[in-house]
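Most newcomers find our protein records easier to grasp once they have seen one. Read left to right, the backbone structure tokens trace the chain's path through space. Once this layout is familiar, the rest of the handout is easier to follow. The record below serves as our worked example for the rest of this section:


***
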Amino acid sequence: VAHMPLLENPKTSPALLADQQRETTYKAFPLLSMKGQNCLRPFVTVGAGTGLSYRFLKSDAHTDLVAHKNQNEHSALSYSAQVAASIPLFKSYAIKGGFQYLRLGEAYHFAATNAEHQTVNTYDYMNLDLKLTKNLFCDGTFRVDLSAGAKMGMLLSAQSSWLDPNDHSPILHSSDDQQNPFSQYMLSWNTELAGYYTFGNNWLVGLALEGDYFQNSVYIKQTGLVQRPYFFQGSLVFGKAF
């Protein structure tokens, strides 16, 4: 007697069961595929920002000048432009490095009956930036990173001026002078909090808030001045994940 072949129950077919399992996984973890695509990928950004900069000043040889400058100097705008790359290391950590152009400034204004001087002292650097990044949040579309590290800066140009606190004569300094009083290289410490939004074909737009503090003085040791700038600024960044 011929036997009819057993028909596969469509409700229990392997293909249907696999589809149901994938659908259940997607419902339980809707961001799983997005996380794999965006949270563990390297990305490159370009950005520019502005903020406020000031300085820490001390001098054992020029105590009158320190008091004079503290009374007549105020914070000034800083500017920066940078390109950076973030390379994942393991789990939620990454290395972030890049180059940054940075201009720092401090506003000086002294006015008296016999003298007045107003200017913005500026210091321009090209920085090599290297930080360790910890990802605080990522759902594939939004991410928040906290970074800390150091910058090695090379002086591009600098100028500063003020009035002598005793006779009110002008004191001028420039990196173009034959006797350049400014340090050629700088080390600064940096922290950064950055948030990013991913759109389109893995493009990124974000906002970064950072603060820097200089380890060494902008002036060489022979001047007797120890002046260490610090600044806080925000930057708008744009980039792409790969």
